[in-house]
Automatic annotation (TrEMBL):
CDD domains: ParAB_family. It comes from Entomospira nematocerorum. This is ParA family protein. Residues 3-147 form the CobQ/CobB/MinD/ParA nucleotide binding domain. Coiled coil: none annotated.
Length: 217
């Protein structure tokens, strides 16, 4: 199964969700994390993780911009799950990845700028669905503030979105654990400075379990 995590905007938390999903799935499934971003954010993170010999080992590779369909088809024969972290712009790479994915997860905050980018993504996904009918779309609220009641604006935010887009009930909040984990090749599932953020782990588990439950119906 190919799961892409994508948005036409940077800074929405694609890489954070990608590395956490890879960690979550790797515990029980043969999983590959692929970096399709020119900035190579996840590839850099994976290098730090390998240097520190942190377990579990998370298999991470670069997805080349050429021959995307063929590369993904080949990897799909070797892995149960492939997670693709796609760069934050409308590009041929993004479009080819959408054409090959079973699932796309679109992270967004509640900002007006992110909402515009998410609507742009819906248009791209709608185009992709014309020749990839199996593509299923999940929208994940990410980087929400723990100190405000901004979640009350969610119903208004969701106006004008297509009916085929599934809004995840599980939400990810802005937490120090996510920021600290990246620079050390870790995720919130790992100990960071001998501490574990149980709230971060719980919300990530709920997000991935909700997605898996839906696709396994």
């Amino acid at each position: 199964m190919i799961i892409s995590i994508a948005s036409t905007k940077g800074g929405v938390g694609k890489s954070t969700l990608s590395i956490h999903l890879a960690h979550f799935l790797t515990q029980k499934n043969k999983t590959l994390l692929m970096d399709a971003d020119k900035q190579e954010t996840t590839l850099t993170w994976a290098g730090w993780r390998a240097e520190e010999e942190i377990q579990p080992y998370i298999d991470t590779q670069k997805l080349p911009p050429q021959g995307i369909k063929q590369v993904l088809e080949a990897r799909e024969k070797q892995y149960q799950y492939i997670i693709v972290d796609v760069g934050g712009s409308d590009s041929s790479v993004l479009r080819y990845v959408l054409a090959s994915s079973d699932i796309v997860i679109v992270p967004t905050s509640l900002s007006a700028v992110d909402r515009i980018a998410t609507l742009d993504m819906m248009a791209l996904i709608d185009e992709a669905k014309a020749y990839n009918e199996k593509l299923k779309t999940f929208i994940a609220f990410n980087k929400l503030s723990t100190a405000t009641k901004e979640i009350h604006s969610i119903p208004e935010y969701q106006n004008d979105f297509p009916a085929w887009a599934y809004w995840l009930n599980s939400k990810i909040y802005e937490r120090i654990a996510y920021r600290r984990s990246y620079a050390t090749g870790r995720t919130a599932y790992d100990k960071i400075e001998d501490k574990v953020d149980h709230k971060a782990i719980t919300e990530m588990n709920h997000l991935w379990q909700e997605i898996l439950h839906d696709i396994q119906k």
